[in-house]
Inverse folding.
């Protein structure tokens, strides 16, 4: 199947598609916010958008094409998908504003940290915690989009619990990113010893 799809699309195409699906989900959730079945239907579009985050990586490895554009767009696409929908959900009073504020602050902080590290010639690799953070956020947003009890599942309550979990994982993984950055800094004591020897 991969060989068939790889003839027509690239990993970057899937990443761009994920970004383009955001306004579609955004508009439907805002306009039909009180229609449980339409919200349940748009969840499938959202679920597909989330799956492209996995598929673009698989396709890039299969095609052996890892581009700088893809490395830039992939994490940005995830943030656009999750954070924009969280802001919409806050506006609809379906997600706690303080949790969303923490999540957005964390994203800015880690993005800034990685930019500083890159400018200094160091690379902070994506951690396992960061992957768990993304998955937990995607699950939380998915349940909060549906909102109304569906198929016997209290989706809103489940989404809130998952959002708390995502916030905890986000803070934990963010701490590890900062620790990874500071662990790569040169030891000040060794620098002062070298300068004294010179």
């Amino acid at each position: 199947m991969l060989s068939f799809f790889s003839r027509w699309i690239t990993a970057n195409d899937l990443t761009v598609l994920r970004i383009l699906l955001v306004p579609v989900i955004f508009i439907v959730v805002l306009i039909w916010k009180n229609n449980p079945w339409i919200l349940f239907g748009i969840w499938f579009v959202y679920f597909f958008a989330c799956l492209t985050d996995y598929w673009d990586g698989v396709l890039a490895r299969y095609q052996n094409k890892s581009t700088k554009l893809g490395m830039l767009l992939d994490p940005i696409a995830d943030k656009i998908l999750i954070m924009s929908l969280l802001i919409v959900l806050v506006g609809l009073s379906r997600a706690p504003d303080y949790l969303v504020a923490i999540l957005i602050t964390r994203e800015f902080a880690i993005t800034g940290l990685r930019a500083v590290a890159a400018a200094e010639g160091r690379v902070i690799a994506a951690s396992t915690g960061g992957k768990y953070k993304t998955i937990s956020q995607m699950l939380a947003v998915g349940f909060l989009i549906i909102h109304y009890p569906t198929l016997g599942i209290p989706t809103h309550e489940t989404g809130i619990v998952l959002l708390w979990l995502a916030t905890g994982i986000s803070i934990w993984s963010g701490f590890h990113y900062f620790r990874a950055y500071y662990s790569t800094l040169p030891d000040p004591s060794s620098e002062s010893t070298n300068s004294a020897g010179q």
Observations:
- The longest helix spans residues 155-183.
